[in-house]
């Protein structure tokens, strides 16, 4: 009953906060049109190495841009809600875990709508291959990446005294996620003693899934590589990035794991860490 009551409370709170949600959807729509026009039809070009890297760069940028925006924009909302939560918990209205559960669950429908808006525009304007499998892989990976970014922002707020401090902590991790995503420096080129950090970086799993699902099965298309000649796109991706089509199921599981992990840490922190000043 507490979970349902908290969920209804969060629903009403989000519904009465048009600034957060309307701006989120507006920003997503504008960003998708911007990315679509900037990388117009690049998804269908794989003839040269530059074309291939442009396509991968479009996926990489599309993930980070909205993801970091989600993480940053949710922080003030969670910070304000936490102040109300301290007061209502002290009054015995509900306990910490039902509140945390409701706070995480209420994000899901809004992130889903955001993902659908973003995916339809970006996927069509970038010119990726229109098959059900590829499209739904793109939709799935975008949804879970946006969701784990949102939950990561919530977790940072729960771990720190204020959302301002949380933003500073989170920005440091964005830089590390960016560095170890596997795009700027392929995982195969990273020293062996640092590769574990790639596996611990959620963005690297998203990039793995996007590149592999969209390009990893192109066994009938070749890419021109300077000083090496023609090579199959699928073979190049396997050799250069270390991505394998058979690993997609693990990529899927890891996205779910990161979402659950960030939500779980958020709940535990809300229960045991109290920054209230008396």
UniProtKB/TrEMBL annotation:
Transmembrane spans: 22-40, 52-80, 100-123, 135-153, 165-185, 247-273
Keywords: Membrane, Transmembrane, Transmembrane helix, Transport
Domain ABC-2 type transporter transmembrane: 2-214
Gene Ontology molecular function: ABC-type transporter activity
Major localization listed first in the record, in broad terms: membrane
InterPro entries: ABC2_TM
Membrane topology per record: Multi-pass membrane protein
Gene Ontology cellular-component annotations: plasma membrane
Compartment(s) where it occurs, according to its Swiss-Prot or TrEMBL record: Membrane
Domain of life: Eukaryota
Protein name as it appears in the record: ABC-2 type transporter transmembrane domain-containing protein
């Amino acid at each position: 009953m507490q979970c349902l009551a908290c969920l209804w409370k969060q629903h009403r709170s989000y519904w009465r906060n048009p600034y957060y949600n309307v701006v989120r959807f507006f920003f997503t729509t504008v960003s998708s049109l911007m990315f679509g026009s900037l990388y117009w039809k690049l998804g269908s070009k794989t003839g040269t190495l530059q074309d291939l890297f442009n396509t991968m760069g479009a996926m990489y940028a599309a993930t980070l841009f909205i993801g970091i925006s989600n993480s940053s924009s949710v922080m003030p909302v969670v910070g304000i809600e936490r102040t109300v939560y301290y007061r209502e918990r002290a009054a015995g209205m509900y306990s910490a875990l039902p509140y945390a559960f409701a706070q995480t669950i209420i994000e899901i429908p809004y992130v889903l709508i955001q993902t659908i808006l973003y995916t339809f525009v970006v996927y069509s304007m970038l010119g990726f291959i229109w098959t059900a499998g590829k499209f739904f892989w793109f939709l799935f990976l975008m949804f879970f990446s946006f969701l784990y970014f949102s939950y990561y922002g919530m977790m940072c707020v729960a771990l720190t005294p204020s959302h301002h401090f949380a933003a500073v902590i989170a920005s440091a991790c964005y830089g590390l996620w960016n560095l170890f995503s596997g795009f700027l420096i392929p995982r195969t080129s990273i020293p062996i003693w640092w590769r574990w950090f790639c596996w611990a970086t959620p963005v690297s799993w998203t990039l793995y899934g996007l590149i592999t699902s969209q390009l990893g099965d192109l066994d009938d298309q070749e890419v021109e590589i300077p000083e090496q000649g023609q090579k199959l796109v699928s073979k190049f991706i396997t050799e250069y990035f270390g991505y394998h089509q058979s690993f997609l199921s693990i990529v899927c599981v890891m996205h779910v794991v990161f979402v659950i992990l960030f939500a779980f840490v958020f709940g535990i922190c809300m229960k045991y860490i109290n920054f209230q000043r008396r």
